[in-house]
Amino acid sequence: MQHAQRGFGSIADVFKSDGILLWQAGLPYAQYLARKYAPIRVTTAPYLGGIGNFQNDPLLSQQCFATSEPLAATRAGLAVKTFLVAESGYNPYTTVLVTSRERLRQHPAEVQRMVSAVRAGWAAYLEDPSPTNAAMAQLNKAMDLQTFQDSAQAQVELIRPPGTDKLGAMSTARWQALVDQLTELKVIRGPLDPQRLFVDL
Questions:
Q1: 3-state secondary structure of 22
Q2: Torsion angles phi and psi, residue 20, rounded to 5
Q3: Which residue in 11, 28, 4 sits closest to 77, CA to CA?
Q4: pLDDT at 44 over 90
Q5: Is the pLDDT of residue 61 over 90?
């Protein structure tokens, strides 16, 4: 996320600019971006959460969730522009259901029921997020109901990307790209068969 008046056209512009980028440098996505856009010109510093620093510095950019900090910044009266890390080519599955191969083998119907229930829940949320947003607003007083509604709208294409047949679908090609990237970054070692990393139920 950066101030719109900076006129950046892509995430690459952030790394070639003056100013400061707040991020968690040790995370794989940061390592990937630093390598892809090297040598970087922007000064980097740790991201500690929120938008307080961002509000007070027009030359500051920061990591964010596209469904959170940009909404808070807009509500604070700031004009912002956000680039998805996925636009750079690094696009992992960031929220997944995990089970063991043994459990999948021994209890396939149970695993299928779980997947079906989660998929149905997300489908219902996409259809009408209002009841869930109201419940979350009661639990999280730091976000008002309007922000929850704005967040629901902002994440529609992240939950159901264009061209996907079903919620939660995965592909071998996307897993292979991630394996290649993490191997190059030395986050993982040794060969991994992407087809053994997921089951698309």
A1: strand
A2: -125, 140
A3: 4
A4: yes
A5: yes
pLDDT tens for each residue of 147-161: 899 999 999 988 988
What does the alpha-carbon distance between residue 65 and residue 80 come to, in Å, rounded to a whole number? 13
Residue 23, both tokens:
């991020």
Largest Cα separation within the chain, whole Å, is 56
6 residue type, one letter: R
- Sorted by where each begins, the domain ranges of the chain are 2-88, 93-169, 170-201
- Tokens 């956000």 locate to 82
Average pLDDT of the chain is 94
Cβ burial of 53 (10 Å; 0-12, 13-18, 19+) is: middle
3-state SS class at 148: helix
Burial bucket for residue 26 (CB in 10 Å: 0-12, 13-18, 19+): exposed
Q: What angle do CA 10, 12, 17 make, to 5 degrees?
A: 105
Measured distance CA(86)–CA(66) in Å, rounded: 12
